[in-house]
Amino acid sequence: MKHTLCIIKPDATRRALTGEILALIESQGLKIKALKWLHLSRKEAQDFYIVHKERPFYSELVEMMISHPVTIAVLEAPGAVEKYRNLMGATNPAQATAGTIRAKYAISMGENSVHGSDSLENAQKEISYFFSQREIF
Ligand code: ATP
Ligand code: MG
Question: pTM for the full model?
Fold first, then answer.
């Protein structure tokens, strides 16, 4: 079994889509192993997306991530990273496959409703950034 990190982003929180998105995730066989509701600080959002520091959308991304609370989950499944990325759909919702979370719910490239780790290595880093061992079931 492998793990990945999911964040339900502020645009989805704001539109009361948290329950629906979690239900969709669970219905696809991704098991929730840890869960928290957080209002990220600016520093946390900056650090979390530090790889995008030089990108033109970085400050917009940070402001978006702190605009509302988020729900953060550890998901487990065989091939969890790829399985959840497939369920999320493309970063740009206009290019997301029908039925994916982003095709269903995302508003734009910036407000795209969910985050998912992009590799096993990053999943491990991201999980330990938000959760202690005793918070993961
Ligand atoms: P995430 O890391 O959030 O799961 P991703 O891996 O699909 O998304 P990344 O390239 O890592 O996409 O970009 C991180 C996030 O930055 C995107 O999900 C989106 O919210 C924002 N972003 C990316 N490109 C743009 C852009 N051109 N304009 C505005 N925001 C963007
Ligand atoms: Mg990414």
Answer: 0.97
C-beta of 115 in contact with ligand 1 (< 6 A): yes
pLDDT tens-digit readout, 43-87 = 999 999 999 999 999 999 999 999 999 999 999 999 999 999 999
Write b or e for each residue in 32-68: b if 16 or more Cβ atoms lie within 10 A of its Cβ, otherwise e.
Answer: ebbbeeeebeeebbbebbeeeeeeeeeeebbebbbbe
Question: Does the CB atom of residue 91 touch ligand 1 within 6 A?
Answer: yes
3-state SS assignment for residue 76: strand
Top-level CATH class of 2-135?
Answer: alpha beta
Residue 137: pLDDT over 90: no
The domain locations on the chain are 2-135
- Mapped onto helix, strand or coil, the DSSP state of residue 70 is strand
Pocket mutation for ligand 1, best pick of 13, 48, 57, 60 (most atoms within 8 Å of C-beta): 57
Q: Which residues are catalytic?
A: 115
Q: Distance (Å, rounded) from C-alpha 9 to C-alpha 102?
A: 11
